[in-house]
Design brief:
Elements lengths: L2 H4 L2 H18 L2 H11 L1 H18 L1 H4 L20 E4 L5 E14 L4 E25 L3 E10 L18 H37 L1 H16 L2 H10 L7 H16 L1 H14 L3 H8 L4 H9 L4 H24 L11 H6 L4 H6 L5 H23 L5
Antiparallel strand pairs: 1-2, 2-3, 3-4
Helix pairs in contact: 3-16, 4-6, 4-16, 6-7, 6-9, 6-10, 6-13, 7-10, 8-9, 9-13, 11-12, 13-16
């Protein structure tokens, strides 16, 4: 075969694999993790979902159609209003809107019933003018991402609660507390887990025995009774903000034990490694060796564990608030919203009050899928 025919085809066939191998050989650990993570499609989509949820938690005043404390006694337990994108009267045209209510007081049942009034069209739009607020507590604004064009008109896309408040707006505001309590709680648990687990595995002996006995005692107590006991110990006259931080600390004091066990096992295996001995000979302090040299060596595993711990924190806060021992109004979280759906009568009368449970389920699933993807990416050579 003529060499001119073979020559041009060899680079086209072999170049891509060779370039890939060359990139892998010089890639850092974080690049390998990123390439591996992108191959996990479900985790990648979950990362986008989690990012969007945290964006909503960051700016709920802009995203929500109404403030969380706005109520209207005329629309107690008003049913959801479907959003219509097109109008057919006078020809098909794009005009987002909802259909208004006609309310009737049922004297026999002692409650107000609602029917749709097709003659009452409430236009909806994006970046509409509504209740004033301060973005990030600093920037005065009155524009909302979506809502009714006329802010005085009712628009309850997910229905109203027992006070006539917009459930969707309260869920959006609840995202801030439910998601932030997960981050703050995990940050505290992460600090306790790394420090106490690191000290336990690094020193061993009596220190290790004492810390492990404390961990075993905490893990042997049933979780919900322990939550209830600690939450009931909080003073009832505390303001809502102090209760928020109190619940966060309670969850953190319980959630550090699992990570501490993992860190201890890693430190027991690494404390005889050469780089640890070199750091000791160089005069580094024990805490510097633990935090500067040993902990970063399995940072990828810590990231994956942290991501998987956030859903547990969110569920814990939701459970405490649902039982009435967690956050209390006027603080709004998914747990406090679900507390309204405790009675069977309330659920039968207004089943849309269970929508916050859907938010919890979606968030927990997304965080778990994200954690699974990070756990796989943490070991890119497997």
């Amino acid at each position: 075969m003529d060499e001119s025919q073979v020559g041009p085809h060899v680079p086209l066939t072999l170049a891509p694999p060779l370039e890939r191998d060359a990139q892998i050989e010089v890639a850092s650990q974080w690049q390998l993790m990123w390439w591996r993570f992108k191959q996990h499609k479900v985790a990648f989509v979950s990362a986008i979902v989690v990012l969007l949820i945290y964006v909503v938690a960051l700016i709920p005043e802009f995203v929500a159609p109404y403030p969380s404390d706005v109520v209207n006694a005329r629309y107690l337990y008003a049913p959801p209003q479907p959003l219509h994108l097109f109008r057919t009267d006078g020809g098909l045209r794009f005009e987002p809107h909802v259909v208004g209510y006609r309310s009737v007081v049922d004297a026999a049942a002692g409650r107000r019933t609602f029917t749709t009034d097709d003659s009452l069209i409430i236009p909806a739009g994006l970046f509409v003018q509504g209740a004033p607020y301060k973005l990030f507590g600093l920037i005065p604004m009155d524009r909302h991402l979506f809502g009714p064009v006329d802010a005085s008109q009712p628009m309850y896309l997910l229905g109203a609660d027992r006070l006539g408040g917009d459930l969707l707006s309260k869920m959006i505001y609840g995202t801030r507390i439910s998601m932030s309590i997960g981050l703050v709680g995990v940050a505290l648990s992460l600090t306790l887990g790394i420090v106490l687990g690191g000290v336990s595995g690094y020193y061993g002996g009596i220190v290790d025995t004492a810390i492990q006995r404390v961990i075993e005692c905490l893990r042997s107590i049933p979780t919900i009774p322990l939550w209830m006991g600690l939450a009931a110990a909080l003073p009832s006259n505390w303001p809502p903000l102090q209760i928020y931080f109190g619940i966060t600390i309670i969850l953190s004091l319980i959630g550090w034990t699992g990570l501490a066990r993992v860190v201890r096992g890693r430190f027991l295996a690494m404390r005889s490694e050469e780089f640890v001995t070199a750091a000791q000979l160089d005069g580094a302090s024990d805490m510097r060796i633990i935090l500067r040299y040993m902990a970063p060596s399995f940072a990828s595993h810590i990231i994956a564990s942290t991501t998987l711990a956030i859903p547990a924190m969110i569920i814990s806060e939701t459970s405490l608030s649902f039982l009435g021992l967690g956050l209390q109004p006027p603080l709004v979280s998914w747990g406090t919203l679900l507390k309204e759906a405790q009675s069977v009568r309330s659920v039968l009368q207004a089943p849309w009050q269970l929508w916050p449970a859907a938010a919890v389920i979606v968030t927990v699933l997304a965080l778990n899928f994200l954690g699974d993807g990070l756990r796989d990416a943490a070991d890119p050579y497997s």
